[in-house]
Amino acid sequence: MGIEKMLESVPRENLEKAQVFKKRLLAYQNPVEFVNNMYGCHPDDTGGTYFQAIYK
Amino acid sequence: MVGDLSKMPSDSFLEKWRTNIEDLIEKHPLQIISWEATRRCNLNCLHCGSPSEEVELQEELTTDEVIGAFYQIAEDFDMSQFRHINITGGEPFVRKDLLTILREISKNPSYRNIDIQTNGVVLARNPDLFSQLKQYGVTGIGVSIDGLQETHDRFRGRKGSFDLAYQAAKTSVENGLTVTVSTVANTTNIQDIPQLYELVKAEIKPRIYRVMTLDPIGRASDEKLMLSPEQTQEVMGFLLKEYTSNCSEYHNPQTTMVELGCGGWLGQDLEGLVRPFIFHCVAGINNLGILYDGKLAACSNIPREFGFEGDLRKDRIKDVWDNQYQRYRNFDWKNVGDCKDCGEWDYCHGGPMHKRESSGKMTDCLYQTIANGKDYRACSIGGKK
């Protein structure tokens, strides 16, 4: 399928919204704050600061 | 990067991210410890990345050795940026001393944020464990559910294991723990994933539903289980659709998020649209792996064939972290094969370490598979290509 076609299959308004959050992910001060490892299962140690900063 | 599809981030955002990553690599603060508690397991899953065995292993670290290692780390390292301990296996709960270890190490304030990856068998049968786990610093539980009931039980080689995993995950949520339900996508369960996700979201209500693509390591290095390029694209399409549909609710802790696990960088266009983070392998950068026998690695998921950086029975852990992890922080040796001249190199640096052989050979690249249809199924660790 290829990446471009995958993206074209997403409703435009959903993609626009997700791109706003992507910019915040890219600009976040600790770029791997939420990347744990293969088994990682912990959002962050303050109970949601990261997700508030990115998705609110 | 493709055209202005719904206002993609400009190059300056990617450059900022790259600069931040390079800064982190240079400083490599210890933030996560992945402790492979044991290689023993009470199940025998077809796809397990760890070739676990239900036997006593003489070389397994003793209770005192484990506790001593965690205290040594707290004494030697700057723990101001430390985040959490991630306990994996094997099945961690087959260690009879797990609670003792948790009780002792959680006396140190740095170790009050611990998660455990489990198949759920012991937890489901012993719900009284939750109060102690929480008391000893456990804040997260990861439970593997690899398909709907029939698929999951067949994979686990044990009827009833789906019910136990389901129960363990649900009870963990009810006990206020941050829960991840994980599915390893492979040829036998790919058809279950959308329905499983709906069931998990509606009934278990975990914080995260994580999908990983099967990696060719451990017992999983069987081509018949590996996804074709088309199937890999199907999985990514599912995650893309779910993420973009629901991500505006992810600030709400009651919402279940989807994420692709750390299978690799997806390219500048797709990365950041299938999971609530931008991927970069953190092995040896902020993640230290302590293996069941005390070998020091960078992540407990990296195949043992890749080698070790030290041994806590012989070495001071801080000395090893400071001086022996160069191959995790300088990636020139990975810039071969499909990585050479790849336009994504500056961001992915050759992808996750668990997909590399010590020779530098890459066994799988999700970006190449999704963007260019490249098929890596015969490239398993020690494989043919």
Write a structural description.
The complex is a heterodimer of chains A (56) and B (385). Chain A is 52% helix and 0% strand. With 56 residues, chain A is mainly α. The longest helix of chain A has 16 residues, at 12-27. Chain A is elongated and about 35 Å long. In chain A, 48% of the residues are buried. By secondary structure, chain B is α/β, with parallel strands linked by helices. Chain B is built from 12 helices and 10 strands. Chain B has helices spanning 11-27, 63-76, 98-105, 121-125, 129-135, 149-156, 161-174, 193-204, 229-246, 317-323, 345-348, 366-372, and strands at 32-36, 84-88, 114-118, 138-144, 178-185, 208-213, 257-260, 287-290, 295-297, 310-311. Chain B has a 10-stranded mixed β-sheet with strand order 7-6-5-4-3-2-1-8-9-10. In chain B, helix 2 (63-76) runs parallel beside helix 3. Chains A and B meet through helix 1, helix 2 and helix 3 of A and helix 1, strand 2, strand 4, strand 5 and strand 6 of B.
Blueprint of the fold:
The complex is a heterodimer of chains A (56) and B (385).
Chain A: H1 3-8, H2 12-27, H3 49-55
Chain B: H1 11-27, E1 32-36, H2 63-76, E2 84-88, H3 98-105, E3 114-118, H4 121-125, H5 129-135, E4 138-144, H6 149-156, H7 161-174, E5 178-185, H8 193-204, E6 208-213, H9 229-246, E7 257-260, E8 287-290, E9 295-297, E10 310-311, H10 317-323, H11 345-348, H12 366-372
Parallel strand pairs in B: 1-2, 1-8, 2-3, 3-4, 4-5, 5-6, 6-7
Antiparallel strand pairs in B: 8-9, 9-10
Helix pairs in contact in B: 2-3
